[in-house]
Amino acid sequence: MKRTLLVAVALVLAAVAGCGSGTGADAGAGATPSAGSPAAGPAAGGVPPLTGDPTDVTAPSQAQAGTGQPPAQLVTEDVVVGQGPAAALTDTVQVQYTGTLYANGTVFDSSWSGGGPIAFPLNRVVPGFAQGIEGMQVGGRRVIVIPPDLGYGDDTNGPIPGGSTLVFVVDLVGIR
Fold this sequence. Notes:
2 helices; 23% strand; Chitinase A, domain 3; alpha+beta
């Protein structure tokens, strides 16, 4: 049930939130406003450092707490670039992920704890999650930092406090 929390809540909020502002980084190009490797350490307002070996897509990795002010725009960083097809907003994707809070690194959801990848249509989740996965290639791992306006806004949703910046480490397993 925990691994479906993100999808269930996202479906409801996506309907309420609309399509977002579209002002984030170009995920298709793997662009990011931050510099440096997420394993090496964060740039202020960028991608927080990750646990474990972030390049091992067979094992979970999660973001630690961010430093400084969280970014105001969507930030993505490819840790591993996939070799397969790229995800489009109209696709149903199969992913492994761990979601944490930028403020303190607390895990609020993880498909890894549920036993395996989860599939969902990208057009049915919060805008920042969809935009962050768009352009990602199968076999890749990407860190996505989602500001509140592209996530859950000021609303509290389960373990996610209102106004939270979210950080996902996402492995794109497949596209349907």
